[in-house]
Amino acid sequence: MLLLAAAFIVAFVLLLYMVSPLISPKSLKLPGAHVVVTGGSSGIGKCIAIECYKQGAFITLIARDENKLLQTKKEIEKYSVNDKQGPLLKLVQVPVVASCPSHVSAVPPSLVSSAGFLQISLSVSLKTEWSHVKVVLCISVDVSKDYEQVENVLKQAQEKLGPVDMLVNCAGTSVTGKFEDIEVNSFERLMAVNYLGSVYPSRAVIATMKERRMGRIVFVSSQAGQLGLFGYTAYSPTKFALRGLAEALQMEVKPYNVYVTVAYPPDTDTPGFAEESKTKPLETKLISETSSVCQAEQVARVIVKDAIQGNFNSSVGSDGYMLSILTSGMSPVTSITEGLQQVVCMGIFRIIGLFYLGSFDSIVRRCMMQREKSESADKTE
Question: Where is the protein localized (predicted)?
Fold first, then answer.
């Protein structure tokens, strides 16, 4: 009887694996696709742009720092120069829409010629036709401040490179510290950058995606958007908010063949992470050290792969996989096998998670006791 039950379970699992691809979304083809990356001048955003460009996509980089944007643009284009097909770099000039001041103000001055033209570098493969031209367009704008400006900038990008096939919301910032030590305006600023900075670009492109019955929207959250940790009282809520936005939006756009991905990268070796580490409380540093730091290139490859496939959750490494299972809740699934994995692994992962939480609480208690001892010793001197 046990053998029969085991055989039935094995057969059922095999059937799920066979049926799963039939209900999963079709993969998005990147060659010739228009990919917009906010926060694309450094870190994970830059690596995502590079990964998409290497796979043949047209790239629009959006960030605030014009100098970083231009440096990133040059770095991305190196992958075209080093391509085995030997591409040709060419400078193309297209008119800037003078009737829309917000368009002009959003474009870096260094990209606009004295004649009022926007300069775009095109890299052309010598072994391909002109229809396979690769383009990197840079636009400087703060995606968290003015929705109309963000909308106008994205309209301009679509006029030059076509409708947006994939939007990657990677603009973000972080502040760490004890709840009572963080300035109130920091809570407001982080919510604006990390949440509204993803809402505005997404809203600007979603109508076109629904009309075309295709598209991908990626929200780059964080493992701190799955688990609230010491020191992240200002940061974590903004990343948790992205999950709620993504779940609601996915339910709205799924009938239109538009898929949403939420990425939960771990600590990643980026300029932002290095800056954040300078002000981390001791407790936060010790908790962070319980897992390794990933490379931005590795994280970018995983995010791009999951976005192309239309996966709702994107995680990196074993810790990331476990967290995604534990926090799956009522989140969408894009395959039967994914749902089955969540059902099977939830219990054992919860047990493991309890040990993690216990160790984190222990770290916080030890730090508190050490601090109290130090303060007591200072008073007695």
Answer: Endoplasmic reticulum
